[in-house]
Protein: GNAT family N-acetyltransferase
Organism: Gallibacter intestinalis
Amino acid sequence: MFTVCPYKEEDAAACGDCFYEGFFSCPVDQNDKILLRDYAQVLIEKCNFTYVAETEDHQVVGFICGKYDKHFSKALAARYEAKKHYGCWCKMFLKFYLKRYKMSAPFQKQFDAFFRQLQERDKEIFGKCDLELVALSSRRNYRKGLGTALVTQFLNRAKAEGADCVRLFTNTLASWEFYEKRGFKKVAEKPFQDGSDNRSIVYEYRLREVYETGMPDLVKKEEEDGV
């Protein structure tokens, strides 16, 4: 069982660990972990709200973020639940582009590939939505409904605040089937620019369509994947 609760500033390092375990497979050293922590913190602070999932012993094992579109609600888009550390933002990006993190060679290779995948995100294809599901990252060895618990909390929050359209960006290198099993519909797809067989995908969840029929019972779905 997992407890899903709002993100706290002291969760940043654990979220960095979750980010690693959701997207990378190579060994990492302390320098790599510093970048993972900083990246996760910047991502979270750019979003309007973040939830973490904790085990019974209060270990953070997953997180999920949401970012509101100002065209949907300027008030919600201007409200951020995590304190913004603008100095940390600038320091992180400057340090990254100047290659001061001194990442290990295996991690550098995987992170560069991850960064190239992010650049496949096309704003025009992504389109406008009330709320963007920005990140779902979790430990691979927890396949006990962790992802489902986080997505359920996310959708409940979206419904409570009046959002109609939730969208997320992923690709065929990630566990995109996770969302299809939970009622998300594919609305856009585009091949990678590198000519590979991989594709960028946008999924959408229309909350208005489930207001009358009721929210799907996601808790019964035990499969758990990451974005």
Summary: The CA atoms of residues 68 and 131 lie 4 Å apart. The two ends are 21 Å apart (CA to CA).
